[in-house]
Amino acid sequence: MKYLLDTANLDEIRELSEYLPIAGVTSNPTIVKREGAVPFFAHMREIRTIIGSLRPLHIQVTARNYDGMMRDAEAVFRHVDEKVFIKVPVDFAGVKVIKALKRQGANVTATAVYGMDQAFIALEAGADCIAPYFNRMEALGVDAANVIGSIAGIINHYGYETEILAASFKQPAQIDRAILAGAHSVTVSPNILREIFAKKVVTDAIQVFADDWSDLYGGKMLTELDE
């Protein structure tokens, strides 16, 4: 079970990587757009510097056809590094790209997955990770947890080495359901991760502890107490 950051914001990546057990970073064109017209490859290299070489960095192709997506992947390898997980949308051309990149030994993430049918084909094409869109499926009336559970069942039954990297969350409860359904990892925006720790019952409980301690010892910290 791994938590990845779904952002390209350098400050957020630095801070949350310091505080939380962050296993890597994912990005896509929409996420990059939030940062403005940054120098793309230099920005991605800076993310790599922050997270190090052992944690995965996922970068998505932007072209819409096979030749263009392959050129995109080559540009990422050339300007960032060859350890990057290339995110490829699972459409007709994308499956061909996944197969070709895997023949080259590249790391590949199959993204924009909205159902089992796409996922099963991506598995057979050799994708290292499959990214089902949890909230987007739920918005379409699809049982996202059931989809993830079914993908996990097929992975286990046939012995695929592919991992489920669940994506597209709007609330922490969706993350819980994805993990319980069988997702190996989740990629989550910084604001949703922060919501996990912002529950009122939690902050209220911590405040009670603080008040009780203050009543006993007049606000002194543990390190200020005598033997």
From TrEMBL:
<dbReference type="InterPro" id="IPR018225">
    <property type="entry name" value="Transaldolase_AS"/>
</dbReference>
<dbReference type="InterPro" id="IPR013785">
    <property type="entry name" value="Aldolase_TIM"/>
</dbReference>
<protein>
    <recommendedName>
        <fullName>Fructose-6-phosphate aldolase</fullName>
    </recommendedName>
</protein>
<keyword id="KW-0704">Schiff base</keyword>
<dbReference type="InterPro" id="IPR001585">
    <property type="entry name" value="TAL/FSA"/>
</dbReference>
<dbReference type="InterPro" id="IPR033919">
    <property type="entry name" value="TSA/FSA_arc/bac"/>
</dbReference>
<dbReference type="Pfam" id="PF00923">
    <property type="entry name" value="TAL_FSA"/>
</dbReference>
